[in-house]
């Protein structure tokens, strides 16, 4: 599967954005609020790699524990899937645990995404790409 982006949990998108600009990244779009996941999201790219900066917007969000444990850090890699329902099911059969079922991601133009966990490789995300 092709890598779509690397997801970074960050305490501040604005602070992280400046650091990634020093590394040659530029914003792909505006920061988007994801009301369901209670985070704000900004995608950046350097043409070789895309990164997703994820900042808490309200408490009780999925990155709170990561920020608390390790601070700002990468925590998931997102892979492109041509059939997300099927790929999620196959991975689940192979022992991956579903963190969140297939649902729309506002920051990705409402494409379907899902999150899975493997004790051997950590958190992955799938995004439906036609
Ligand atoms: Ni992501």
Explain what the structure shows.
Strands 1, 2, 3, 4, 5, 6, 7, 8 and 9 form a nine-stranded mixed sheet that branches. This protein has 130 residues and is α+β, with helices and mostly antiparallel strands. It has helices at 13-22, 64-70, 84-93, and strands at residues 3-9, 26-27, 32-34, 39-45, 50-56, 73-81, 97-105, 111-118, 122-128. It has one domain: 2,3-Dihydroxybiphenyl 1,2-Dioxygenase, domain 1. It has three helices and nine strands; from the N terminus they run E-H-E-E-E-E-H-E-H-E-E-E. The chain is globular, with a radius of gyration of 14 Å. The structure holds nickel (II) ion. Nickel (II) ion is lined by residues 5, 7, 52, 76, 78, 125. The site of nickel (II) ion has 6 residues, from strand 1 and strand 6.
Task: Give the key terms.
130 residues, alpha+beta, 2,3-Dihydroxybiphenyl 1,2-Dioxygenase, domain 1, nine-stranded mixed beta sheet, 3 helices, 21% helix, 45% strand, globular, binds nickel (II) ion
Span between N and C termini? 13 Å
Pick out the low-confidence regions.
Answer: none
The number of distinct structural domains comes to: 1
| CATH homologous superfamily caption | 2,3-Dihydroxybiphenyl 1,2-Dioxygenase, domain 1
Overall morphology: globular
**Which value, in Å, is the CA radius of gyration?**
14 Å
Order of helices and strands: EHEEEEHEHEEE
CATH top level class name: Alpha Beta
Q: Any idea what the CATH architecture is?
A: Roll
Number of strands: 9
Task: Count the DSSP helices.
Answer: 3
* Strand proportion: over 45%
Bound molecules: nickel (II) ion
Might you state the CATH topology name?
Answer: 2,3-Dihydroxybiphenyl 1,2-Dioxygenase, domain 1
Overall pLDDT score? 96
